[in-house]
Description:
- Helix 10 packs antiparallel against helix 11 (290-302).
- The chain is an alpha/beta fold and 303 residues long.
- The protein is 42% helix and 17% strand.
- It has 2 domains: 5-215, Spore Coat Polysaccharide Biosynthesis Protein SpsA, Chain A (Alpha-Beta Complex), CATH 3.90.550.10; 222-302, no CATH class.
- Strands 1, 2, 3, 4, 5, 6, 7, 8 and 9 form a 9-stranded mixed beta sheet that branches.
Amino acid sequence: MSYIVTILLSTFNGEAYLPEQLASFLTQSFTDWRLLWRDDGSSDNSVAIMHRFAVSVGAERCRELTDSGTHYGAAASFLRLLAAGSSTAMVAFADQDDVWLPDKLSNAVRHVRAAGDVPVLYCARQFLVDEQLRGHRLSVLHSDKGFPACLTQNIANGNTLVMNQQAALLVTAASAPEASLHDWWSYIVISAHGGRVIFDPEPQVLYRLHEKNMIGRAQPWPERAMAALRRGPHVFMTTMRRHAGALKGAQLAMPPEALADLTKVDAALSGGFSSRVGALRCPRFRRESWLENILFSYWFIKG
């Protein structure tokens, strides 16, 4: 049996929250989905919970990846799932500790279908909640600035991300660099290759914030700026170098304008002052807020 959407779920010691997320899949108004999952080396009851879920919905609808149980880390685990699930019309990343709102998939499918026959990446706002799902504070409202702005920051909330097959195949064809996040790398690849990036202003997920979040926390831009100041430029610039280098090395067919911008940015990252100032003149080589952009420009010129 074929399904329109393959939900990609990586589990790791998620027994405390996993049942609520699985239950939210079953309440989706869009029902033409299957679940592809792998465990990333859990020592709790996560695998047993998943096996019970598979029995309840049927083996065809809930399939475990063959390399389940080996620990790769969250990002690498999700990218392995993406490679295995990219034969379906759409794929949707799912975090084990969130709860999907009932129309999450139906809204994503509607937006992706309306975008036409091009690589499409859909993502959305979230409700930020505590461990007991209380709070419902809205996450940051982003807007896509295109390429190469995607090299400066990630706006694609991974727990809301849905891609069509064209986009998924592009991402799987480009090897992610070391320590890259699966959602950011997907956003970069799709943006660089002229795909359509859709950011839905309506929240679609209850994003549970707790001490064991695998990947990041959603923060307002003043908090993001302060966190960046505390980290310093090294991590930021190293990540940009890795992303630009991996994108250049992928040798996929990028639009001429994007390829020219990538060449300029990549050269500036290993070049001197004048080349860095020149790269900053790229119209879309910017972060969203003015404060973040000032800091980014300073770090980029300083190197």
